[in-house]
Amino acid sequence: MSEFNVAKTLDTSGLSCPLPVVKTKKALKDIEVGEILEMISTDAGSIPDMEAWARQTGHELLESNDEGSSYRFFIKKTH
Amino acid sequence: MENKPKKLALIASQGTLDWAYPPFILATAAAAMEWEVAIFFTFYGLPLLKKDLKASVAPGTNPAMPMKMPFGGEGFQNINWPMPNILMNNVPGFEAMATSLMKKTFKNKGVASVEELRDMCIDLDVKMIGCQMTMDVFGFKKEEFIDEVDIGGAATFLEFAADANVSLFV
User: Fold this and answer.
1) pLDDT tens figures, B34-80
2) How far, in Å, CA of A50 to CA of B136, rounded?
């Protein structure tokens, strides 16, 4: 479905706030600048949270997908 | 992003399980957003820094606290049990039972435990300041606390908070 070249996938399914953003931040340590992290979440607040997180950190949120019972994000590490 | 990170300054003054969550959740979320974070643990919040963390709920202090059963069907689990807290507080073991039910409910909903959130704070370099005055009043020793604690007073916290973007008292 996605055309992104994903360096790492993080699945936070079942976890509540603030774990999706905290684990996303942590997972970025494992990839290089310019690479893309895919994050999957079931937390209904994660779309606004990930948008805010990206605005605050400056990492690039390439795509947010609402897939009904779960959410999928593609984040490009910028620094 | 800007060179200077945003700052969050929190005061954690409550030691019950439910009140332990807001400062740790806000601190970890802000640190994940690459903010600089400090929490000043004072009065009843100070025991949250103990190596052996034993936060429990105190239903009598919050009559609005819903009581949920962490087992059974979804309909059963969603019931808010009308517990007469004022009466139940006199029943031996009630607080331990309420604590255990709340921990189980949190776990079922994928909420991190307070211990896990505190470990994440350490991992994310959240500055945790233990209040010296509270230590003196309640007779706590530094050895009882986790190693990452900085001991300080009001001035230590205020210097950090002076140019914080967000300051909250919990």
Assistant:
1) 999 999 999 999 999 999 998 888 877 777 777 788 888 888 888 88
2) 42
Q: Among partner residues B6, B28, B123, which is closest to A18 by beta-carbon distance?
A: B28
Domain ranges of chain B: 7-54+115-169, 59-108
**Residues of A acting as catalytic residues:** 17
Partners of residue B25 in chain A, C-beta under 8 Å: 17-18
Fold category of B7-54+115-169 in CATH? Hypothetical Protein Ychn; Chain: A, (3.40.1260)
User: Coil, strand or helix: which one is B96?
Assistant: helix
The position carrying tokens 């605050």 is A56
Position A1 in a domain: no
Predicted complex ipTM: 0.92
Any idea how long chain A is? 79
**Nearest residue on chain A to B111, alpha-carbon basis:** A16
pLDDT in tens, B20-43: 999 999 999 999 999 999 999 999
Nearest CA in chain B to A27: B32
